[in-house]
Amino acid sequence: GPLFGPGGTGGDGGASSFNAGGAGGSGGAGGALSGTGGSGGTGGSSINGAGGLGGVGATAGWVGSGGAGGAGGTSGATAGTHSGGQGGAGGGAGFVGSGGAGGPGGFAATGPGGDGGHGGNGGSLVGNGGPGAAGADVAATSTFSGGGGGSGGSSFLVGVGGNGGNGGNAAAGLLGGPGTVGAGGTLLGRNGIPGLPMSPNLLVNPGFETADPSGSGYSGVTIPGWTVSGTPTIITYGTPRGYPGPFSIPDLPGFLGFPGTAPPGGGSNFAGGGPVATSTMSQIVDLSAAAGKINTGTTPYTLSGMLGGYLGDPSATSLKVTFLNNSGAVLGTGTTTSVTSLDRLGITGFQGRDVSGTIPVGTTKAVVTATFADHNPVLGNYNNAFADNLSFTVGDPNLAKPTLTVPTSNVGHLDHVFLIYMENHGVGDILGSPNAPYINALINSYGYANNYYALGHPSDPNYFRILGGTDYGIDVNPPPNVIYGNNNLMAKMDASGVTWAGYAQSMPAPGTIVDSGDYAVDQLPFAMFNYVYANQTPGYLTTHLLPLTNLGTDLQNPSTAPKFAWIAANESNNMEGPVSFPTGALNFVGSQLTTHQYNIAAGDQFVQQQVSTIQSSPTWTDPTQHDAIIITFDEDYNNLSLGIGNQGNNVPMIVIPNAGAVNAATGAMQSGHFVATSHYDQYSLMATIEDALSPSPGALGPLTANDMYAQPMNEFWK
């Protein structure tokens, strides 16, 4: 009827023996007020000609769904070039209702497969777009392409865009193109999903299976293949959860732990936001090989992943793709929603999220970014946003999946490296501090990395990470002799003839491995390792663990000076504190709540004394020696993971070369003041030390995936 009722189905097109099949009839319109549009008729088949076009689905009334498009007719021709019929387009809805589905394309024996029909648009108020139909297959022996998938219909205000149709199957390289997706409603809804065939997953290490996961879950690690900001991490499913702090406490019960069971296809590991702050990881995907298809304006993409979180913590992950042209201009973006704690009903776990759309014309590369947004309201000690199984695909099956590569190092050879390691202050505490005039003078005179990060809390794991390439699952300040095995930098240096020593302030005698007076064994990290602590080589401890007072004497001869020297202050000078009771303790507590300046002046003087000792020595001034001093901090002020002084563990990093290193014929270092802006961390420092001191490639490392895939500190070399 004119106001109410469905429209009738269009008649089928007639079959033909020699000519093209007849087109299917269009469906009848639905009633003007309420009624479903009629479906289009099927295109006629042909024995020796092209298949007929499928009929168009009719539009609906104000309320009702559009009719489905009719199927394209088949072509059974054995000679000539005769295509299958194109499927009819689905009808559109009026105000409320879904668009009709497109009709599938017709099969062809000796020509291109018929294209799938386009889905109809959803109602202008509420309604989903209709799905595009599949393009038709062609005969296995055909040299022609399968039909293209139909485009999904779009939703307007509220509703989901229609999925694109799959391309038809054909010989390799001749697959029909996938249909583009319909747009989701502007108020509520999501885009449809592209049809197949799509490319393989274009992300490297998308499930984080290539990694050395944090054994504690509480420290950042190197994430191979990804560029990061902050300190994201990789964790193995089922890792027990403790609490980082100076002293050991029992692990939490399982239901309060890290995710114990992987989602389908989740593998062994997942990514987490890591300690203390918002973090990101990103990859650049080269799409230049697909430029021809992209510039047709019909190439779809899908970005997806399993995103999750922890109990009621509102920290959450979202995914974003940014499309760029050759000049780096942004052409468009796509962003998933996050999985909120409400979505998870307060249960630790993961849910799938995706976004699809059409790649903007002119795109040559895409930047895929996972953002782990830290909103932890409890203490501020951990970012409980999680992700796994990330995927980015585009509508070109000929693109090859990229391979994982090791970062390039241009670190030159050094004869001596002096590492001065201070305590518990981030960049905000030191830069511009009136209590650190000498350190600020160094920052303004030499190379300074403003994007360098410690990887966790408390102090001691930030020491032994540099020597072992992992956190060993330790999230406390442990007693000596707790790390077993020979896979550490000391063993590698011993085997390669690279001499080393640790110099500790207030150590009463060489080789002391018990606390004594102002000396604490963990001022230096070496005695944490059984390889050092229990080494049976005669004189081993007295050769390698030395009072700081020995440093000046040991640097009198470049040929006998240790090639690697770790220099540590005692509690009175390392900038941590407190150093006296009750006055010092009260000042320390006051500093916790204000500007975190307690004991900085003493540490600044300590650094000045040690740098002066090194720079005035014959080892440093010898023009044939290539030496560098590295000054950094183990962590920021948030060492108790209480959120006090939390700067995301961004700590100062200063590198000072001597004249020999600057003037080296090969592998020369940068001179004067400059700011290195690349993201570096403790594994970057480890990789840099390995590369600089190694007598031959690979002699000192890598020890784990952390130093293997860490970005070396290349900016300090020319």
Written account of the structure:
The structure is a single chain. The chain contains 14 helices and 20 strands. By secondary structure, the chain is of the alpha/beta class. The protein folds into 3 domains: 197 residues, no CATH class; 168 residues, Jelly Rolls; 301 residues, Alkaline Phosphatase, subunit A, CATH 3.40.720. Strands 15-14-16-11-17-18-12-19 form an 8-stranded mixed β-sheet, sandwiched between helices. Strand 6 and strand 7 form a beta hairpin. Helix 4 runs parallel beside helix 13. The relative contact order is 0.09.
Question: How is the topology of this model organized?
Answer:
Blueprint: E1 227-229, E2 233-236, E3 269-274, E4 279-286, H1 291-294, E5 300-309, E6 316-324, E7 330-335, E8 349-358, E9 365-373, E10 383-394, E11 416-422, H2 427-430, H3 437-443, E12 447-449, E13 452-453, H4 459-468, H5 489-496, E14 500-504, H6 530-533, H7 540-544, E15 545-547, H8 551-554, E16 564-568, H9 583-592, H10 600-615, H11 618-621, E17 627-633, E18 653-657, H12 659-662, E19 674-676, E20 680-681, H13 682-693, H14 705-708
Parallel strand pairs: 11-16, 11-17, 12-19, 13-20, 14-15, 14-16
Antiparallel strand pairs: 1-4, 2-3, 3-10, 4-9, 5-8, 5-10, 6-7, 6-9, 12-18, 17-18
Helix pairs in contact: 4-13
**Quantity of strands, as a count:** 20
Q: Strand content of the residues, in percent?
A: 15-25%
The low-confidence runs, each spanning 5 or more residues with pLDDT under 50, are none
Assign an overall shape.
elongated
The level of helicity is 10-25%
